[in-house]
Every structure is written in C-alpha cells, then in structure tokens.
Amino acid sequence: MFRFAFLVFVVLSVVAVGCSGGTTYVDSSQSSSGITVTGEGSVFGEPDVALLTVGVEANAATVSEARTQASESMDAMRLALTGGGVADEDLQTSRFSIQPRYDPTKQQVEIVGFTVSNIMTVKIRDIDATGELIDAAVVAGGDRARVESLTFTIDDPSALEDQAREDAMADAKAKAETLAKAGGVALGSPRSISEGGGAIPVSFDAERLQATDAATSIDIGQLEVQISVSVVYDVD
Predict the structure, then answer these.
(1) Do residues 59 and 148 both lie within one domain?
(2) Rg, Å, the chain Cα set
(3) How far apart are CA 82 and CA 235, in angstroms?
(4) CB 97 within 8 A of CB 59
(5) Does residue 160 lie within any of the structural domains?
(6) Residue 207: which pLDDT band, with cuts at 50, 70 and 90?
C-alpha cells in the first residue's frame, strides 16, 4: 500500500514540475495555421434620396398656448411639403417634447413659460427638389421653424455594396498572396470571411438652411460605399 502511494506521488510530482516552468504546451493537433488579412473596397454613387430633419419650436406662457402655436406652424410646414410632392408616408415624427422654461436671473426656481418642440423626418425622393422643399417648409414654419439636419443617401445601395464587396475580396486576396509568397507557402482557400461597412451618408450643414431670404442652394455630391472584409486563408 505504501509503495503504491509513493508511485502516485512521484507521478504527480513530475506533472507539477512540467507545469511549473512557465512554458505553455499547445497540442499541435488542436492548432491551425493560416493567413488573416483585411481587404477594403470603396465605390461611389449618386444619391437619390434626401433625408431632412425639420420641425418647429414654440415658446409661450402656458403649455396649451405653446402647443397651439407649434401645431399651427407644424401643420403649415406639412402642407408645404406635401404640396411640393412629398408623400404622407414619407413624413414621420421623430421627436416631440414639452419643456418648462425658467428665469435664470432669479435665485428661486420659477417657471416663466414652456417650450414645445415637434420634429419630423422627411424623405425627399425627388432629390432635385430638395432646396425648394426646404425653402417652402421654412417659410411656412416662420420664426418657429427649425432645421436640424440634411443627409443624402441611396435608397437601394445593394448594387454598389456588391461591387465594393468584390473589390474588398480582391484586395484581401492580393495581400494574402503577397504574404504567402514572402512566407514560402502556397495560399489555399478562404476558411472564414467577415464583413463590415456600408453606405456613408453625405451630410449637409444645417445652419445654411435656416435663412429664408434667399433660395437654398444644395450640393448633393457623391455617396461613398465602403466595405471591409476580414478573411482567413488556409496555407498549403
């Protein structure tokens, strides 16, 4: 019995020594070799949709009065947009809020009025009419009109994304082939592929859209679609 216990102790001691040297042992049967690269693809297209964030802000002594003013201005703004060809389904309320206003000059908190904000997102499909529609909406909203943002995008960017994917994969393969040649190995087939990226909206400075004394000039520009891929290739 003592001899058996001693042998067990010896075996355990050998295992402990083997693990205490600071070297991590990796079973080669579980390891895998390969080349991991990242490829980039970028193509440009002309936007065909404008996304406008616009609305009204009304200040009054009471909530009721502020809501009435905001409603009147918002109705006029909606009428100007739909009259210019924007469909009802392309108008969507994105934010509505009622906030108290305080007198900052007084030590004690005192409500002196209320602010009602009503903001909507407008999808403009006739992109060439964007400037005219913005002017019509701002004029209709009057001094309560607010323009928060304007971006241009492509309603269906799938064709551009496919081209960017092909370019990204070609870029990844070229990098992998260079690495394989430098490493003295033969490049195999892709083992895994992951993708990121997409269409990058073209933004427009909203501060340039507030003026009502002149026609708004809009430069649409080009929209870029970027796709990145991470590819792991086998090596032979």
Answers:
(1) yes
(2) 32
(3) 60
(4) no
(5) yes
(6) low
